[in-house]
Amino acid sequence: MSHNGGHVVKKILIADFEEKTLASLSYALQNNEVEITTCNDFEQAADALVTNCYDLFITDIGMQGARVFKSLELLGFIKRHFCTEVIVISGYNWRESEKELCRLNGLYFLNEPLDIKEVLKICEGIKIPIKNKKMSP
């Protein structure tokens, strides 16, 4: 476990095939109490998950190349065994059945285009320190 001046450093893994999303999330979440790892394909993310313990995994479900239900079930498995919390990002509108599957698996879900404020709100709720409480509009 990483420490920084007596504080435990929270570890976040971000997986998205869009560099812009990786960069904006990394920038918004980075501070001296958070360690960010980014990857742009699911194989890299899987390797990272089995070699490290993360407090939060943020992933775009579209990059996994699997049907949504199977991916959500896989992400539920990942949450239970490899990391504490999972935020799922999707570029299409969630159906009620998929939202329910997210809830059953304890996953947070967000639509694209991603609103960074929503991510920061979730981070605050799950006790991951954020750089600044106020985001400019």
Give descriptors for this structure.
single chain; 137 residues; alpha/beta; two-stranded antiparallel sheet; Rossmann fold
Structural features, described:
The protein is of the alpha/beta class. The protein has one domain: Rossmann fold (3-Layer(aba) Sandwich). The chain contains 5 helices and 7 strands; from the N terminus they run βββαβαβαβαβα. It has helices at 19-29, 42-51, 68-81, 96-104, 116-125, and strands at residues 3-4, 7-8, 10-15, 34-39, 54-60, 83-90, 108-111. The strands form 2 sheets. It has a 5-stranded parallel beta sheet with strand order 4-3-5-6-7, sandwiched between helices. Mean pLDDT is 87; it is low at 133-137.
Task: Compile the SSE list and pairings.
Blueprint: E1 3-4, E2 7-8, E3 10-15, H1 19-29, E4 34-39, H2 42-51, E5 54-60, H3 68-81, E6 83-90, H4 96-104, E7 108-111, H5 116-125
Parallel strand pairs: 3-4, 3-5, 5-6, 6-7
Antiparallel strand pairs: 1-2
What is the CATH topology? Rossmann fold
Quaternary organization: single chain
Uncertain regions spanning at least 5 consecutive residues: 133-137
CATH class bucket: Alpha Beta
Shape descriptor reads: globular
Assign the CATH architecture.
3-Layer(aba) Sandwich
How many domains? The number is: 1
Number of strands: 7
Q: Main β-sheet: number of strands, strand sense, barrel status?
A: 5 strands, parallel
| Percent range for β-strand residues | 25-35%
Average pLDDT: 87
Q: Structural class of the secondary structure composition?
A: alpha/beta
